[in-house]
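Our preliminary data section would be incomplete without showing what the modeling component actually yields. Below, a chain of 358 amino acids is followed by its predicted structure, encoded as tokens that our downstream tools consume directly.
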Amino acid sequence: MTDLRVADFDFELPEELIAQEPPAERGQSRMLVMDRATGEVRDSHFSEFPSLLRDGDLLVLNDSRVIPARLYARRTLRREKEMPTGRIEVMLTEPAGDNRWHALVRPGRKVAIGERLVFPAPDGQIVLEADVLERGQFGDRLLEFAPVEDFFGILDRIGHMPLPPYIHRDDEATDRERYQTVFSRERGSVAAPTAGLHFTPEVLDRIAARGVEIARVTLHVGLGTFAPLRVVRVDEVRLHRERYSISSETAEAVNRARIEGRRIVAVGTTAVRTLEAAAAQAETAPLTAHSGETDIFISPGFGFRLVGALLTNFHLPQSSLLMLVSAFAGQERVLAAYRYAVENSYRFFSYGDCMFLA
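Predicted structure:
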């Protein structure tokens, strides 16, 4: 598959099919069901998802919690204590050690190394300060925040939910809940693991009542999930590293399912990447509890070790996530299914409909 090009994963998508709002109620989405062996698709609804699972399946969820990572700052030059006018948008992308974060800043060309950014609360009080340590490409900056007692608590006060760039509106109060899975618990993502957004507590209860085992992994989603692939060939793609962890309970559940030949069903591409990265690291050995980072890139030709079925949303054209789904179910079949979804007005991307491939 080394001759594949990024452009081979393109498809036409009308702008009006990009979901700008979540469904009126969580769990109301449509679902396209695909037989990955044949490519056959049929229309369904997410409410049918529990009935498509088998007794003994292991359902794996990503429990990462989205942080309010979009902040607004003012500039100040440390040596002059100036306070220039103009607001700077700061999007935290990943931690980089004690009090340090990588961030995207806009407008980036104005923010130089050595500057200090200050972050006011709605009442005007400065609650965070950060020095610009390094400058990277495409607006990337390394920031060092002055120590505070409760950094994440302050983010909860002044931060905004980091809605993806294809949602053309400001975040609203309702996004605090809806751009978050009901099973999220480990803070660290700057983008939602969107396949999990469809689940409700009632759906999870129905799944458990069917004799399906549920396990959790944690992969903190970075903004690299939306970054355009700035290469021509698929074998040139390099992804950002993302932090993940697998508990002893989950490792044991995966090992049991593997030994007993039970199907492992991943909820979302982030769960796939976590499981397959851990399996690749362990090779033929049993999984063990551990934490680490992964930049695993899954494209056609990849040999899946663990995942036997996948629930996922519809992904961006020419994206690494579309390549992952194509690796799982076949490039031609997946692109045909996407064309069907477009023709039948499925809603796309984070707040859109979903697809079950089994």
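The radius of gyration is 21 Å. The mean pLDDT is 94. Preliminary results of this kind motivate Aim 1 of the renewal.
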